[in-house]
Amino acid sequence: MIYSTTIGTANDWYRSLTAPARDLALCRELAFGLCRWYFALSSLLASRLQKPLRARDRDIEIILLLGLYQLLIMKTGDHAAVNETVNLARAQQKPWARGLINAVLRTVIREGTTLDEDLKAQAYPDWIVRRIRRDWNDQARQLLIRGNDRPPMTLRVDTRQIAVDEVIARLAVDGIEAVRHRRVPSAIELPSPCEIGRLAGFEQGLLSVQDAAAQIAADLLACEPGARVLDACAAPGGKAIHLLQRYDAIQLAALDASETRLERLQQNLARIGKTAQLLVGDAAKPDGWFSGGSYDAILADVPCSASGVMRRHPDIKLLRRESDIMPLLALQRDILDGLWRLLKPGGKMLYCTCSIFKEENEVQIGKFLQRHGDCVELPLTESDWGQARHNGRQILTGSDNMDGFYYALLSKPSGL
Ligand SMILES: C[S@@+](CC[C@H](N)C(=O)[O-])C[C@H]1O[C@@H](n2cnc3c(N)ncnc32)[C@H](O)[C@@H]1O
Fold first, then answer.
1. Which of 50, 201, 283, 340 lies in disulfide reach of 335, CB 3.0 to 4.6 Å?
2. Catalytic residue among 233, 304, 352, 354
3. What pTM does this model have?
4. Pairing mode, if any, of strands 343-353 and 376-378?
5. Is 304 a catalytic residue?
6. Atom 13 of ligand 1 has which residue's CA nearest to it?
7. What is the pLDDT of residues 40-79, one digit of tens each?
8. CATH number belonging to domain 9-118
C-alpha cells in the first residue's frame, strides 16, 4: 500500500523539536531551505570541488551546502556564514575539512556567485526536470523556477459563518495583514506567515489553513441537501471539513487507508464540531469496507506524486523516487475503478491530485473514460482558474500563487 508518506515528513520532524523559538525558526529555515535548493547547490558545489567528497564525508558535504545556502539564499554576512560553517565542521571532528570549507566558501564570495535562473531551474532531481520538460514544453522552465518560491500562507474562511472582509478586518486589528485571493472567493493570503495560535477564529473553525487550489474541490462537488457523500482518501481532512462546512445537511463518509491519519481527521472534526462516518480501508477494494447504499457524490483526492506541492513540502524533491510513479498510477486507476461502482446513477465523482504530471491527471482520466462507457466528463469550462486540458483542468504550481493541482468531474448519467 502506498501512502503519500513524503507529505509533511519535514513538517512532522520540525514539530517534534524543542528549543528556543529563535533557534527553531533558524533550524526550520536551514532544513526546509536546504531541501528546496539541494540539487542546485549540489551542482554548484560539485563545480567548485577538485574531486568529489567520499561517501563517508557526507556530513562535510551537507555542512558545505548549508554554508552555500546561508551565503547565496539567506544572504547571511560573509564573515558569519564562513565562521559558522567552519565551526560546524569542528564539531564533526574532521579538522582537515576546515581548510576545504574555508576555500570553497571564500571562492564563492570572491567570484560574486549568485543563484541564477539556470541554477534555479535545476533545483530538482533529474527525473523530475525531465518529466516537467516532457509534459509542459515551453511552460516548463518558468514552472521549474516558480516551483522554488516560498508558498503563501493561505487560509479558508468558513463563509457561512463569517464574511471574508470581516475576517480581514479582524486580523488587521491583531496586526496581521491579509488579502483576498483573486480567484477563489473563500481564500485569503497572509503575505507574512504567522503562528496558527495567533489567528482569532481558528479554534472555532471560522478559519482553516488550506491552499486556494485545494479549496476549489468542495465548490466543484456541489452536494445537494441530504446527499450521501464519500470522501474516499480523506485524511487529514482538509476537504472533508470544507464539505461539511459548505453543505451542512450531507451525510459524509470519510475513508482512508491510514488509521493514524484518520485520527488527525477526527481531531479536525472535533475542532469544528461536526461528525462524519470514519472508515479505514482501501478505496480500490470496497469489498473490505463498503456495507451497501451507493453514493450521490464521491471525492477521490487520490495519493499522488505530490509534484504540485514541492514548494510547500520541498523534502519531496529528496524523498520521492521515479520508481514510485508506476505503482501510484496503478493505485489511482484501481481507486477510480473501485469507486465508480459505488456511485449512484445520476451521481458525480470528483477526481483530484496535487500533481503536475500529466500521467496522473489528464492521461489517467482519458484512460478511465475509455474503460467506462457509462461515464460522462462534465466540463469545467466556466472556471477561471488553471488551464483547460483535453480532460479536466490543471493548475500549474504558482499560477495565481496556488499549489499545482488537477481536477476532473465525472458523472454517471441516470438514463444509461
Ligand atoms: C492527497 S492525500 C488526501 C488529502 C485529503 N483529501 C485532505 O484534503 O486533507 C491522500 C490520502 O490517501 C490515503 N490513501 C492512500 N492509499 C489509499 C487507498 N488505497 N485507499 C484509501 N486511501 C488511501 C493516504 O493515507 C492519504 O491520506
1. 283
2. 354
3. 0.93
4. unpaired
5. no
6. 233
7. 999 999 999 999 999 999 999 999 999 999 999 999 999 9
8. 1.10.940.10
